[in-house]
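Category: protein sequence paired with discrete backbone structure
Discipline: computational structural biology
Format: plain text, a pair of labelled lines
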Amino acid sequence: MDANGRVLIAQRPAGKHLAGGWEFPGGKLEPGEERAAGLARELKEELGITIATPRPLMRVQHAYPSRDVLLDMWVVKRYVGEPQGLDGQALRWCAQEDLPNADLLPADKPIVRALRLPERLTHVLTPDYKIVESTFPRQRFAVDEDTHDRPKLFGTYCKDVEDAALSAAAGADFLVISVALQDGELADLCAAVTLPVFALGIKLEEAWALGASGCNELGAQLT
């Protein structure tokens, strides 16, 4: 993202799988390579930029006719250099509201809505998302009860990996952790789920380093 909140997308060059389609820049992890290290290497090789403090967002699985892919999506706001298409790919900066019409590849499309989530959760309800208490048994978040469609992302409060897994299975879009977890517990939870996680009682960059997408600044429960 640039200073104006625009998002960079790239067009796959001729000769590559799905050539001509638009996607978020990146590449493949090398065997044994750490996720953040692979991100830094790929964006250096592909765009010529040096990144700092990337923010984990989400992971997306998608089945194409010829292969299955797992996209590990990060948000990069701090970097040195001007992005260039070093692989011969066309680049384009898009305002977030223009991304749904940017002809993105199918695997990339679910990421567009998640980009609306802030780094710090300070509101229960916004035009983009809504946070609800977790309930047992959970009802699936198929529609908004007021409008009978799904214009918003839905998040739920969770206290542990089991709670998070139940919320994810019920169709939640992101997880709001309601207790302050130990570093190892938070890292394990973030590794176990593919959704954005917002941690309680931790500094923002520490949360990112452990795999969380941001911080829960609402506290332990809804009021």
In short: Residues 11 and 22 are 4 Å apart (CA to CA).
